[in-house]
Amino acid sequence: MPKLSTLIDRHKQFYERNEKKQFDKARRYYRGDFWFHKSVDIQNSNNLHLCSKNLIYAIADTAVSALLGPNPRVAAMPQNQRSQEAVPAVTGLLQYVFRDNRMRRRAATALIDAVLCKRGIFKTSWNSAKDAPTIKVVDPSSLFFDLTVRDVADIKYWLEATVVPFAEFKARVESGQYKAKMEDVQPDRYPTWILGDDQKGQADSVRDAFQWVTVWEHYDRENNTVKHYVRQLDQVVFEDTIEYIPYSMFSLNQSGVDCLGLSEVQLVLNQQETVNDLLTHMKRITYLQVPRILYDAGRISEEDLNKAVEASVGSFVGMSPQNSESLRTIASLFYEMPMPQTPQGVVAFIDRQEGDAAFISALAEAARGQVVGARTATEMAIIDAQMKNRLATREGHLNDALEDVAAKAYYLCRKYMRGEKMIRIAGNRKWAAVTLDTIQDVDVEFEMVSYNPIKTNPAVMIETLLQLIPLLQQDPNIDARQLSEELIKGLGMPTSLLMPEEDVAEAAQMQMEQQQQMALGGAAAGGGGPPMGAEGPVSPEEIALLEAAMGGGGAAPEESLAAGGGSPIRGEA
């Protein structure tokens, strides 16, 4: 491993040479600032025609709604029978951690980073003050890592540039956390190389009102160490051993050569700029199509011309022609210049570029249910399936990172959380009685609950259920009452709509008694003949079955669950 100073300098040079301009452009484009490289001068008519259509924002916005859903949910998956009992507690604990850290908002920020700047990065650490894990989103501009490998899991080291307020740095020194002499530390301005070019003004006006110290955090996976290094001191001010790497990184698209990834902006940049150029061209031509009239200045004065132009409709305009011939041939004094026309095919070409961008990204149109280029139902089905598969791949990359975050948060909770904290956060939930001892040494893995947009559309869900219910009712392995309960809950309706089980049993008993009485009554009326049912004579075997049914039989659903040794997970979403 080279010296930290050398490693830092090399990574900064690589970033400024290869990625900084890309990130700046992508973030500007996302905000609609497509013409930042042009100085818009009102005296220059060409600049007034600048026009754009923000495909980048549409792709980023759709990525959040299509891949993330309304609320990221994580579930614990037991790896052995002993861990099964702790699943509700572990799931409940991690769902609390996600809610406490506003993971929907943080994951949305990371997703936009991935769309614009190749990578989304989470950092999971322990917050002693809150006695809970803290999950942050790290700016891709400030985190560097090993570029000699192709898979994130193989990265040997990480380098993060953290900018610490001078007062906080001083507090760390005074508490003994940092080993440094304050007289040697000079407060500095906020490092502008981390910021985009359009953010430097903010740094000058706001951030420079404070004093800062840049601290580099170096995580070494090979030696399991973490170091905090101050470049101006050329000194490690903190060092410790680690059992995990706090970063969870993902890319929506793999680069094929390293871990840097590919942004959606890189993939559709040509289409975006082509659309902007063509729209600007069309706008300029549209303005040029306003008629221009030439007139013979030798035969009509400018004063008379202005009187004619400014006169109201239907009025009489007196003129003083230069000669008598002018009045008789007034139509010949004016000539309409031929104007340029919009080239045929430009609009279609713009539409083609937008379609290409949507197809390349697999986000902008597919997630809204619009399939580009399909002519038949079969083609639409095939393209739709392909789009969904590509979206599923991107969703998988995001979920891998979130599952890694969950595993790290769970590790930190087991190692540092106080038992009283878990009891407080559990509250009145069903796992309130669970303590930290219950989840110690529990072998679980974590899985993100995939977002299903069908469940968010009641009309679609009802239609789907109406198709499935007859098939489910025919399955003898399906508990009809449990099926009804889950369907009602899935539709967001109260389970109070279901009759109490004792009322259902009583109604079934009464119906069976009525059927038996009808059957026996029919036998008596027939002079001792066989009892008659709806389909004809009732056989002795059927009578025996009827009597057995009236005698009860079978445990209640709750008893069956208890006897079967299992219960559904009802952890809070």
Please provide a written account of the structure.
With 573 residues, the chain is α+β, with helices and mostly antiparallel strands. The protein has four domains: 4-264 and 391-445, no CATH class; 291-338, no CATH class; 461-498, no CATH class; 499-573, no CATH class. Helix content is 46%, strand content 13%. Strands 4-5-6-7-8 form a five-stranded antiparallel β-sheet. Helix 9 (264-288) packs antiparallel against helix 12. It is flat. The two termini are 45 Å apart.
Features:
573 residues; alpha+beta; five-stranded antiparallel beta sheet; three-stranded antiparallel beta sheet; 20 helices; 13% strand; disordered C terminus
- Spans where pLDDT lies below 50 across 5 or more residues: 531-535, 549-573
Please tell me the total number of domains.
4
General shape:
flat
- Count of helix runs: 20
Which strand order does the major sheet show? Answer: 4-5-6-7-8
What's the average pLDDT? 78
* Number of distinct beta strands: 14
Percentage of residues in strands: 5-15%
Helix-and-strand structural type: alpha+beta
Radius of gyration: 36 Å
Helical amount: 40-55%
What is the rounded distance between the termini? 45 Å
Query: Main β-sheet, in a few words?
Result: 5 strands, antiparallel
Please give the structural blueprint.
Layout: H1 4-18, H2 20-30, H3 55-67, E1 73-78, H4 81-84, H5 87-100, H6 103-117, E2 120-127, E3 132-137, E4 143-145, E5 157-165, H7 166-174, H8 200-205, E6 212-220, E7 225-230, E8 235-241, E9 247-250, H9 264-288, E10 293-295, H10 302-310, H11 324-328, E11 334-336, H12 346-361, H13 377-416, H14 419-426, H15 436-439, E12 444-449, H16 458-473, H17 480-490, H18 501-525, E13 532-533, E14 536-537, H19 540-550, H20 557-564
Antiparallel strand pairs: 1-12, 2-3, 2-9, 4-5, 5-6, 6-7, 7-8, 10-11, 13-14
Helix pairs in contact: 3-6, 3-9, 9-12, 18-19
